[in-house]
Specification:
mainly alpha; 64% helix; flat
Length: 911
């Protein structure tokens, strides 16, 4: 009896010892990355032992987080991934562990995970599977793991985005063996559910496209074949495909579903049953899809299976679209139907007359010809009156013809006065005061690091950091703790394998706002050595050798100087913080700051004060003179320098236009007032000459994140910045780069200084940009400059003419841009530009000097010019226009030249 009791008492202790030993062995195997040994240990552990081991595994995970890029961490993570999943009991906890961010790129294999989890209850496995499937697709959860859990649990298959995209990659991936895509799909037990989910899941169309392309081995061919075999329900697949096209989306995605619809080869009955869907697609879908729907409806109409009323409804919707190809095809279809069915004229001709108001004059003329040809088939007087009334929307030349053929009302002989519509000039935005509390500074810096900033946000956060570092450094450091904890340099072993000081010492460049604040915060937390800061500030920054060096170095020099002062002698506040969001600093405000420095006995930083002098406003002469008097009265060296700056007139550099390949660039001479020795060396770079022949235009400043700050260096002198960025902007037109014009042009338009050669050439390149968003940015800049009275339309037009001749700007792109500008109501502005562009191009055409690229799209430019002339009532002649208008034929170039000549000759301005 005694032995039994003793054994019973000893058992818990022995069990605890065994559990501790097992846990130790498991943790050691995890640290060593011995996954096979970990699996063997887990197989021999009880549920209680597994649960007891989890706290130790959690501690290992926390330890590895502090050095996540180390070799030890990469070695241990797969084993830790499997062990941690096996040692937890809650489905939610296991799913969170499996999909954790810190485990994402170093996971255990799906086979290992299924082995260690496979002995759980089927309902529990189903719960884990569906929780994993609910994760975003970017979580990188293994499809093989999710599918294996579904197979083991026997649960319904998830149809979430992550699961469907994983299934697509699994079935269509190149590593798959054992037959074609069609064969692999045929063997899938969940085929029907997952195919139905394809049509509901965003983004899968693009994935389908690049996974297998087109042809007999494509996904679309496989789905069509399985539908034809009866493996998939045909009506469900067709309905889902049409519904997906109706929902819209990215063009690349919709093209894949359109390909599937064509591969399904709908019968006439299936097409007729979905007539309402084709009508909706023809009205609103992307052009490729709308064209297919239009062709289906056309075939039904010509076969007599679409009523004239329904065809009229379709026509009204299609003729409202801007795509010329669709409009032309619809008018051709109406002509064919009217030839076969005379009685349909009463319903179809009023629908065709909707094109009388189309923005394309060719569409108007085609519609008028159609109505003139078939108007004799109309018997109802009210329909004829409707057609005559609709003719009032025609351009003047066609309206005059409609007076004779349709009995339309002649236009008023008194011209209508044109009222130019331009956007209101942008109002300057004053910077808010620096944050009053350290917590606010931390919040603003956190937001800036997460999503970037503009000049106003950056300068306000920078000034706030400086003020609170001077006021209460400890409170600032405490407030910044949550922000700093997420920065790479705060980790025990920083990224790239170097200490943070080494990183900043070797890489002085500050390519974006985040890099700038990383330097400042790392300095505050002692991660950058004082001698490193001193060396950079004293010796200067290295020359990047690129054309942007003179813009990048002044900004970087100021940030490095601020960092040095944070460590050695914190400033009470910054002198160069602008008053306005453009970077402009009011002179009276700068005098007040210098006075505060004088009274506090604070030392002025050279670069910060130099930047303040570059930003100080001088165009308001009364304010500048008053501030100069106050500055001189301070009795300090900085006050005297400010007074001289305010009283000195700006010296304009010499400007020379230079041709470089197809481009026209600007060469600037030295700017004497910016080369003065009183400026620090980094700021004197802004006065150096600009050489457009530099070989170093392509560099590490490609992101453009710092461009707003470059414009804020010289807010009253945008020409000096634009000249240095002109080649970058020209890339949008010459080499079809995206984003360069859109990033630069708004700052040019908002700048407070005069718009000269470089600014106008930048706008010209933007108007000829390849991408629509860049052209739209150029249109905005054009209109803002015009609204502010700073646009020289003649200069811009002459620049565009030369750029089109040289092939840098394509006429079709330019036509799209100026048509957009004219549509806002700026017809006179657009005409003033085009009247300088067109003679250059027409002269080349008449003498045979036009290239194919410069001639293509000229008809579109003439169409925009004609519309502007008609709306503004412009009169006169245009050199070389008659030579083109007198040519034979009815090409768009010739017809639009005739239209413009008629508008300039006598036609009254349209309303």
């Amino acid at each position: 009896m005694t032995t039994t009791v003793a054994s019973a008492v000893a058992t818990p202790a022995a069990t605890a010892t065994a559990t501790a030993d097992t846990t130790g062995l498991l943790v050691a195997a995890v640290r060593a990355g011995r996954t096979a040994e970990v699996v063997a240990l887990l197989d021999g552990m009880t549920d209680a032992q597994r649960r007891a081991a989890f706290p130790e595994l959690k501690a290992v995970r926390q330890e590895l987080r502090t050095a996540r890029w180390s070799a030890d961490s990469r070695r241990a993570h797969p084993a830790l991934h499997a062990a941690g999943a096996a040692c937890q009991t809650g489905a939610a906890a296991v799913a969170n562990w499996l999909a954790a961010v810190d485990m994402r790129w170093s996971q255990a294999s799906p086979a290992v995970l299924l082995h260690v989890l496979g002995d759980r209850d089927r309902g529990w496995l189903a719960d884990v599977a569906h929780r994993l499937a609910q994760r975003p697709a970017a979580s990188n959860v293994s499809y093989e793991l999710m599918a294996g859990l579904v197979r083991l649990s026997g649960c319904p298959v998830p149809t979430t985005e992550a699961y469907v995209q994983g299934w697509l990659t699994h079935v269509g991936g190149d590593w798959q063996r054992g037959g074609t895509v069609c064969d692999r799909l045929r063997r899938d037990p969940h085929l029907a559910e997952l195919v139905a989910a394809l049509f509901r899941t965003e983004g899968v169309g693009t994935q389908l496209g690049w996974l297998s392309g087109d042809g007999p081995e494509s996904w679309t061919s496989a789905l069509a074949r399985l539908t034809g075999e009866g493996v998939l329900d045909r009506r469900s697949v067709v309905d889902a495909c049409v519904a997906r096209l109706l929902r819209g989306g990215a063009p690349a995605e919709l093209r894949v579903f359109l390909r599937l619809l064509k591969d399904l080869a709908l019968t006439r009955e299936e097409e007729r049953r979905r007539a309402a869907d084709w009508t909706a697609l023809a009205s609103d879908a992307m052009p490729t899809v709308a064209s297919h729907a239009q062709s289906v409806l056309g075939a039904l109409a010509l076969a007599g299976e679409l009523s004239p009323r329904r065809l009229a409804q379709v026509t009204e919707a299609v003729l409202f679209r801007t795509e010329k190809k669709l409009v032309r095809a619809q008018l051709v279809l109406l002509g064919k139907v009217l030839t076969k069915n005379r009685s349909a004229a009463g319903e179809l001709l009023p629908a065709a007359a909707r094109a009388f108001g189309h923005e394309d004059s060719d569409a108007q003329e085609r519609a008028l010809k159609l109505v003139e040809r078939h108007v004799g088939k109309v018997t109802a007087a009210e329909v004829r009156e409707e057609l005559a009334g609709a003719a009032e929307q025609l351009i003047p030349a066609l309206r005059a013809r409609a007076v004779r053929t349709l009995g339309a009302t002649p236009p008023d002989s008194v011209p209508v006065a044109h009222e130019e519509v331009l956007p209101p000039p942008p109002q300057p935005v004053r910077l808010a005061p620096a944050p009053a509390a350290a917590v606010e500074v931390a919040e603003e810096i956190s937001a800036l690091l997460a999503s970037g900033s503009d000049v106003a946000v950056f300068e306000r956060a920078l000034d706030g950091l400086v003020r609170h570092a001077h006021l209460d450094r400890d409170a600032l450091l405490e407030a910044l703790e949550p922000v700093v904890a997420r920065r790479w340099w705060a980790e025990g072993e920083p990224r790239h394998g170097h200490r943070s000081d080494d990183f900043f010492a070797r890489r002085h460049e500050l390519f974006d706002d985040a890099r700038a604040f990383d330097l400042l915060l790392a300095t505050l937390y002692g991660k950058v050595r004082t001698d490193t800061l001193h060396r950079v500030v004293h010796d200067g920054l290295t020359n990047s050798g690129c054309a942007h060096n003179s813009l990048a170095r002044p900004f970087e020099a100021r940030v490095w100087e601020v960092a040095h002062r944070l460590r050695t002698d914190p400033q009470p506040f910054l002198l160069a913080t602008p008053t306005w969001g453009t970077g402009l600093l009011e002179p009276g405000e700068l005098v007040d700051r210098l006075d505060a420095y004088r009274r506090a006995g604070a030392r002025v930083s050279a670069v910060d004060f130099g930047q303040a002098l570059l930003r100080v406003r001088r165009d308001n002469r009364p304010a500048a003179l008053a501030a100069a008097e106050r500055a001189a009265a301070l009795g300090t060296e900085e006050g005297e320098r400010l007074a001289r700056r305010l009283l000195t007139e700006r010296a304009a550099p010499s400007v020379t236009r230079r041709a470089a390949d197809t481009r026209i660039l600007v060469e600037l001479g030295e700017v004497p007032d910016l080369r003065a020795e009183e400026f620090p060396a980094a700021l004197r770079l802004l006065g150096r000459p600009v050489n457009p022949d530099s070989d170093h235009w392509y560099c590490s400043h490609w992101s453009g994140a710092m461009r707003p700050h470059w414009f804020a260096l010289l807010p009253e002198r945008p020409e000096l910045v634009a000249a240095r960025l002109l080649r970058d902007v020209s890339e949008a037109a010459v080499h079809d780069q995206q984003g360069t014009a859109a990033a630069v042009l708004p700052h040019l338009a908002d700048a407070d200084g005069e718009a000269g050669e470089a600014v106008h050439l930048s706008v010209a390149y933007g108007l000829g940009a390849r991408h629509a968003e860049d052209r739209l940015a150029a249109v905005d800049a054009l209109l803002v400059l015009a609204a502010r009275g700073r646009l020289e339309a003649g200069r811009l037009g002459a620049d565009l003419g030369q750029l089109v001749r040289r092939g840098a700007v394509k006429p079709a792109r330019l036509a799209d841009a100026v048509r957009t500008a004219a549509a806002t109501g700026a017809n006179a502005t657009v005409w003033a530009v085009l009247r300088q562009v067109l003679p250059v191009l027409l002269a080349d055409l008449s003498t045979g000097g036009a290239t194919t690229s410069s001639a293509r799209g000229l008809g579109e430019l003439l169409a925009v010019a004609a519309e502007c002339a008609e709306r503004t009532g412009e009169r006169g002649s245009l050199p070389h226009l008659s030579g083109v208008a007198d040519r034979r034929g009815t090409s768009r170039l010739v017809t639009q030249a005739r239209r413009l000549r008629e508008a300039l000759a006598a036609a009254p301005a349209a309303a």
